[in-house]
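Ticket #4471: complex job returned nothing on first submit. Input attached below:
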Amino acid sequence: MSEEMELAFGPRHPALHGLLRLRLRVDDERIVECRPVIGHLHRGLEKLFESQLFAAGVAAAGHLDYLGSAGALAYAGAVERLLRIAPPPRARLLRVLLAELGRVSSHLHAVGSHASDLGFAAPLAAALRERERIVRLLRRAPELVPGGFAAEPPAGWLERCRELAEALPRGLEEIDGLLTGNRLWKKRTAGLGVLAPELAVDLGVTGPALRACGLPRDLRRDLPYEAYGELDFEVAVGENGDAYDRCRVRIEEMRQSARIVLQALDRLPEEPAPPPPARSSLPGGEVYHGVEGPRGETGVYLVGDGTSRPYRCHARTPSFAHLQALPEICRGEPVADLLALIGTLDIALEEVDR
Amino acid sequence: MSEPEVPLDEALRADFGEAIESSRVSGGILTVRARRDAIAGICAALKERHGFTFLVDLCAVDFPGRERRFEVVYHLCAPGAPGAPAMGLRVRLKATVGEGTPLPSVTGVWRAARAPEREVWDLFGISFEGHPDLSRLLLPDGFEGHPLRRDFPLEGLPDEEGTGD
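Support reply: We reran it on our side without changes. The output follows.
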């Protein structure tokens, strides 16, 4: 006997990563339809960009991606392209360092909390332990400004980054062992939330969720920015586009991030980069700058009109697109898998709502 | 690596004639301005014939002084296009619309357009013909006004009770 009913889910739920409301139609235990209702964290960031000096937008854009720094990097990059300036090589490498530490921090959180949502507690503990070290470092990271950095990293910071990147693979080994090395994990996540590659592209999915479908698309390699063009790393891909592969891709990406951090440190010019000269206004024109954030393409479309404030600044965030994939992978699945399906897409509601 | 035989803007001109208003490189990528009513057809052709399977972004810009005040901006990507890296070939498409004039929806071309078109409706008040569910996205249903319009004050419109909510 079939009996459909409506189920309200969220917006406040301990396993939701932010505030998200889902309107579900369920038939017995199966999800028939899932409609996300968003905006609970809408802060009017795009309106705010228009109202403040363009340089202040870097900090505001940093709030797009609270686990990494993709928003700030995309915004700073867009401003620089509009101003036709390029940060010095040292700053470009430092940015790579910052981006990769942010990626690891974000992936550790994604992988750990996803595991915890599914009832696997140990990976979360191990992931948070590793992540804590990164967060401590990022807290003392120099401030990103258009044209480079506002200051040099504090004394000893770069050495700490090296120690961290050297130790990271060991920590990842442990997390990997607790997940992909655990046949219960494989049984729980293999075949879960499968996304076909064509559908993923049609929905605008990018980042690890797209690469898990077997498509090796990564802006760091395909449209290199900052110093990525001169660094050697592999683009991790999966095969089946399921939760298991997405987790594997994220873990492999963290290994690659550790490699990238060490390369960036090796190549870092000794001479401190002078702080960039302050610019008072943005020239007229438009530019779109996208970076490979932890979750996928994070882009900023910036329109200048010759004043000190952006005329328009729009943020393209991966989670916004990924949330559209949620109803697709939910259809026909048991309600009990809902949290796992949200977790595997790694949606950050802060960047959905902006 | 082979170059495409015909530049993209010329190919579009051959197919759509005067519906292509202008094309130039702006901010590093080819920017094509197209007539409002032809936008869905152009998008479908870009996807089917030129490989632009990935709608990167869809947003709007408000120029209140202009005759047709809104510019809707589409950023497209052709992954794996010949002669370009996997995410390399990109194009920007633009259509201008006046207040109250709808734009054809491109949700039939890319599913990725569903939420962005709703967002543009929500924040700018530009409607899309043929969108399956054009309702507010980020703001609550009872909200009045479209806050990303340039003439909408940052602090919000004063409400009747003056509570500022």
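The radius of gyration of chain A is 20 Å. Closing as resolved unless it happens again.
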